[in-house]
Amino acid sequence: MNHVKISQLKQSIAPYEKPHAKSSFIQLANTIGPLLLLWYAAYASLSISYWIALPLTFVAAGFLVRTFIVFHDCCHQSFFKNRKANDILGTILGVMTLFPYHQWKQSHSIHHATSGNLDKRGTGDMWVLTVNEYNAAPLRTKLAYRAYRHPFVTFVIGPIFVFLFTYRFNRKGAKRKERLNTYLTNAFVIALYALLTWAVGWQAFVMIQGPVFLVSGLLGVWLFYVQHQFEHSYFENDEEWNFVQAAVEGSSYYKLPKLMQWMTGNIGFHHVHHLSPKVPNYHLEKAHQASPPLQKATTITIGTSLKSLRFHLWDENSKSFVSFRDLQRFSS
User: Fold this and answer.
1) pTM of the entire predicted model
2) Given CA atoms 196, 199, 200, 203 in this order, what sign does their dihedral have?
3) What are residue 299's DSSP bridge partners?
4) Could you give the CA distance from residue 73 to residue 101 in angstroms, rounded to a whole number?
5) Mean pLDDT by 10-residue block, N- to C-terminus, for the chain (332 residues)?
């Protein structure tokens, strides 16, 4: 990808990099409002039947994913023009989504700066081993990696462990502002959950918040997973790594039905987001449509994205993901 194409890409999406206050407030209203109403409706339905309440928690989980997308934009300083407004809203939404704002902002920034770089893996991304690394790894590492790549671990155990435990502690070397924000988030999460437990009772709280947490966690990890784990993604060593190629070729366009696209805050236009994190989520589709080269990004659908479950290792020779079963064929 030459410099002319890079400059053209950046120029084509530049008009969409500015947040629009009215759009941001409308999104807040149509995200947080329904989430709170659905949570209450699910609680009220418990007096009739849990089978009425349970579907409502699933819909609420979708709105919690949408809430996370707003939080995510705040981390990129792309939801409001004002930095302090992004920080305040991001911290509040971090309590609702269980993510300490400054801690996640730090790790996610590293993810954007290193996505697809084989020499800079390990922060804010999925654990990916190359075929050669896996073959050379000791047995314990191979077993750990296979366990990590099992769908139940990745999409069920993983979110529970990461959201409830990992993010409750500060990373090594965290600055004072980040540490304090984590402590503040933890304190407010405990206070919020204690208040809800007191208000509705612990059984009702678990019956409502449990499914909301589990379903939203599964959906969130799935979205992050499939948008970088597709067959011909992009991974290169540092000396050959290119930011624009990593964004456009290493991030997919997840073409979802319109309702799901809306519910997930347009994050399916992940190639646009990685090219320019300054674009607010409500402008991602417009930016995609304004740039013909971006429309050529790898497109996956719900059906084709399921294939990503068998993508386990990155093969540097074929420049593609392969499965553990493929690995056995290679060695036979």
Assistant:
1) 0.93
2) positive
3) 253
4) 11
5) 61 90 97 98 96 97 98 97 97 97 94 92 89 94 95 92 91 93 97 97 97 96 92 91 88 94 96 94 94 88 92 92 82 54
